[in-house]
Every structure is written in structure tokens, then in C-alpha cells.
């Protein structure tokens, strides 16, 4: 029997194929998904990894075996699967391991309307059924569901373009690095016919990632994009991760733009159309995000890191937009789901609607010095965090909270220290009003962690 504790994570299923899981197990997940959701029909899509088509089809067979009709949309980005779930009103399953190496694969699950499925919203129940059926197989159901194919790419592109008007922007030259991931599938259709000169990089779909990892948050993976933007004099560069639900931006100088600055920029645009509404941000986004939201008349709400928390808070508050420093961006007009493509369209609309360069445009949203996320391997996460808490708890004028890990806030700096759920790592983010202060705080906390 497979060790499901290795592959069933907080928000998804993910592991090495076939070592950790395979097509027979995917079939059981499909059957269990239908049982837990009670779905009469579902939608299934997959990325470009070599194992994705087979796993996706096996999942569909398992679902159909429980009597559910299955719509297969084939190759798609994760946000394209969310579009299908929302527009068709069906629970969905996306086969992807995002930016993980080629041998990995996984399943992102959602209920009808792209509502998230995590441990507390059905994933634990799905795991229990798969474990129960691992020796005997899923029980027979009344009737067999039908399996059909449907192409939703054009509809997905049309929906995104209906949310952001790009027809009147000035002509822009844009380099896009798809990292051999699903951005190579979606970007040409979404941008077709717009006043954009597209310079594509690594658009060939290849789940072995021959050029670089499809994780644009790692600086090593945007070096090629930066060089191309500088060489060609493009207005900006955009990089997508493997399943194209995250986007990362570099300006006309090839300099990275903080995802927090993108969050603030998009929040300002969305609030201009929806005055006074709520915007969600997580506890490691920059101070600039809630500041900008308040300045334009919105209400910022802070939450834990992770898409299930963001989506849950968006649903609870009716928020119009949410952003994370990991470059996930969530929109109420997109069923509260994350879509890097829609965020990219907002950036293009903002840049093309004025005459200045992107560096000048985002300067107003990038106000502080930040460390970026720093990972430290530790033997005892709990003990390390406790020591950092003890040291800072003894100092006057500091505010400590534990919404997600430990956040310590002073007048001119803050840091957040969080434990990884899957590795013996502590993740540190530091921000301050100036670089010298950020460096001092960063080094002091790291000395406690790595002592």
C-alpha cells in the first residue's frame, strides 16, 4: 500500500511518479473525489509533464466508475482548470506538480466554482477512502459515467480579456518566459490581437524542463529573462511557473519587481473599479500593500500564508482581490481563485495606460527594503522559534503575534519566521524602512536560528 502521508499535503496531492504514486492510485483518488464531493459530473485537466496524461485519464476512469460524468479539458494551466470549474459549475481536478522537478506530479482539487479542497474541506476524507480501498479497489456504483473532451482555452482567454480592457493601451514589447510550462499554451491565445509585441522564451511544452526550473521566485530561473529584456529593450518581462498560476515581473531594466509591489498595483486598479471594498494579503507581504489599500479607500485584511486561507478569507469577507508574496493573485471575478495571467493583464494595462517605464510606475508601490525569503535547515523547528520568541519577547516596544508562525513588529521593521510543513526548514522574511536596518535585523535573527 502506498504511504499516503508522503503525498497527501495540506492543500494537494504531490509526489514522485511512480515511486510514491501511480495510475492505479490516481484511479482510486478519482473514485474517492466523487464519493466525498457527491458530484454527478467533474472536470479534469493536466499539465505537460510526461506522466500527466496517464494520471489524468486514470483519475477520470475512477470518477466515471462511481457514476460521474467526466469532462476532460486536456492540456491546461491551473487557472484554466479553475475557469472551467467556475464557468461549468463543476468540481475539478488539475494534474500538475507546479515547479517541482519532472519526476513529480500531483493533483490540485476544487469543488464547484473553484472552491478549494484542503485537509479540512475534503482532502482528509478522500485520503481515508483511498487507504480503505487500496487493497480491494473502489466499490462498484450504480451506472457508469460518460467521459467526453472539451476545449475551453478560447473561452478562458475571452473571460480574462473581458475583465481587463487592453484594447486602447499603447503598443508594448513584452518578453515572456514560460519555462517550458503551461504559459506556452495559454499566453499566445490570451494576448492574440492585442497591441503587444510578444517575444516568447521557452514556449515549447516540455515537462522535463530542459532550460531551467519553472519557478520564477528563484533568482537563478529569471536570469535568461532579464538578459533578453536588457538585450532587446523590451518594456517588461513576465515569467510563469510550470502550471502558469503564478507570474513574476521584471521591469525594463531587467530588475525584478517585488510580488508585493504587484499586489499593491493590482489592488489599486481593482479598488478604482470597486471603491471601498476589501483586499486580502498574507502576513509576509510588504507593509506597502495595506498602506496602498487604505490610501485608495479599501479595507486590508491580513491572513495566513497559503491559498486555502486566502480563498477562505475572500469568501468570508467578500473581498474583491487578494495577493501573496509568492506571486499568487486571487480575484473575486475569477471565483476567488488565483490566476497569474489575470494579474499579468493588469500590469500590462497599467503600464500601457501611461507613458512612463515600469520601474517608475511601480516605485510608488515598492517602499521598503526586504530580505526575500531565507530558508534555514534546523534540527528542531519548535525550539528555534521558541528561542527567537523568548529573545524578542523580553524587549520593550515590540509586538509579537502568531497568526502564522511568529511575526515580530517594531516601528521601523518587522520579520516573520515560519516552519515548513514538509521539510526541516524555517522560513524568514524581514522588511524595514531602510536597507541597513533590514540587514541588521536579518542577521540578528539568523544568528539565533543558526546558532
From TrEMBL:
- Upper lineage: Bacteria, Bacillati, Actinomycetota, Actinomycetes, Kitasatosporales
Q: Name one GO biological process term.
A: carbohydrate metabolic process
Q: What is this protein called?
A: Phosphomannomutase
Q: Which protein family is named in the record?
A: Belongs to the phosphohexose mutase family.
Where in this chain does the record put each Alpha-D-phosphohexomutase C-terminal domain? 373-446
Q: Per UniProt, what is one GO molecular function of this protein?
A: intramolecular phosphotransferase activity
In this protein, which residues make up the domain named Alpha-D-phosphohexomutase alpha/beta/alpha? 7-132, 155-254, 260-368
The UniProt keywords, alphabetically, are: Isomerase, Magnesium, Metal-binding, Phosphoprotein
Any Pfam family: PGM_PMM_I
Q: Which SUPFAM superfamilies match?
A: Phosphoglucomutase, C-terminal domain, Phosphoglucomutase, first 3 domains
Q: Which cofactor does it need?
A: Mg(2+)
Q: Which domain of life is it from?
A: Bacteria
Amino acid at each position: 500500500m502506498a504511504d499516503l502521508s508522503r503525498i497527501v499535503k495540506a492543500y494537494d496531492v504531490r509526489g514522485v511518479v511512480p515511486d510514491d504514486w501511480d495510475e492505479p492510485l490516481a484511479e482510486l483518488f478519482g473514485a474517492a473525489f466523487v464519493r466525498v464531493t457527491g458530484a454527478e459530473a467533474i472536470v479534469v485537466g493536466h499539465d505537460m509533464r510526461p506522466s500527466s496524461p496517464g494520471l489524468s485519464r486514470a483519475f477520470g476512469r475512477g470518477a466515471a466508475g462511481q457514476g460521474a460524468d467526466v469532462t476532460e479539458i486536456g492540456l491546461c494551466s491551473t487557472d484554466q482548470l479553475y475557469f472551467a470549474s467556475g464557468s461549468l459549475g463543476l468540481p475539478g481536478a488539475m494534474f500538475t506538480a507546479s515547479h517541482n522537478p519532472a519526476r513529480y506530479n500531483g493533483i490540485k482539487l476544487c469543488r464547484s466554482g473553484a472552491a478549494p479542497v484542503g485537509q479540512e474541506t475534503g482532502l482528509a476524507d478522500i485520503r481515508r477512502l483511498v487507504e480503505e480501498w487500496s487493497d480491494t479497489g473502489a466499490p462498484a456504483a450504480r451506472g457508469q459515467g460518460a467521459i467526453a473532451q472539451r476545449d475551453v482555452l478560447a473561452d478562458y482567454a475571452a473571460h480574462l480579456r473581458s475583465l481587463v480592457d487592453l484594447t486602447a493601451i499603447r503598443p508594448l514589447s513584452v518578453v515572456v518566459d514560460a519555462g517550458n510550462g503551461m504559459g506556452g499554451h495559454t499566453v499566445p491565445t490570451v494576448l492574440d490581437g492585442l497591441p503587444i509585441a510578444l517575444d516568447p522564451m521557452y514556449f515549447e511544452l516540455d515537462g522535463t524542463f530542459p532550460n531551467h526550473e519553472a519557478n520564477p521566485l528563484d533568482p537563478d530561473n529569471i536570469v535568461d529573462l532579464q538578459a533578453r529584456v536588457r538585450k532587446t529593450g523590451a518594456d517588461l518581462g513576465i515569467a510563469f511557473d510550470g502550471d502558469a498560476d503564478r507570474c513574476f515581473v521584471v521591469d525594463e531594466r531587467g530588475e525584478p519587481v517585488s510580488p508585493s509591489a504587484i499586489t499593491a498595483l493590482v489592488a489599486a486598479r481593482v479598488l478604482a473599479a470597486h471603491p471601498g471594498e476589501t483586499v486580502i494579503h498574507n502576513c509576509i507581504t510588504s507593509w506597502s500593500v495595506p498602506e496602498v489599500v487604505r490610501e485608495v479607500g479599501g479595507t486590508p485584511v491580513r491572513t495566513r500564508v497559503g491559498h486555502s486561507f486566502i480563498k477562505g478569507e475572500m469568501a468570508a469577507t467578500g473581498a474583491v482581490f487578494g495577493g501573496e508574496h509568492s506571486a499568487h493573485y486571487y480575484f473575486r471575478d475569477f471565483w476567488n481563485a488565483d490566476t497569474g495571467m489575470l494579474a499579468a493583464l493588469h500590469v500590462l494595462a497599467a503600464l500601457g495606460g501611461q507613458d512612463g517605464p515600469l520601474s517608475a510606475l511601480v516605485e510608488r508601490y515598492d517602499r521598503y527594503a526586504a530580505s526575500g525569503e531565507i530558508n534555514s535547515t534546523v534540527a528542531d523547528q519548535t525550539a528555534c522559534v521558541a528561542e527567537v520568541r523568548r529573545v524578542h519577547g523580553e524587549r520593550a516596544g515590540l509586538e509579537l503575534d502568531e497568526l502564522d508562525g511568529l511575526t515580530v513588529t517594531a516601528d521601523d521593521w518587522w520579520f516573520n519566521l515560519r516552519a515548513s510543513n514538509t521539510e526541516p526548514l524555517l522560513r524568514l522574511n524581514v522588511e524595514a524602512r531602510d536597507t541597513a536596518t533590514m540587514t541588521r535585523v536579518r542577521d540578528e535573527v539568523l544568528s539565533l536560528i543558526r546558532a
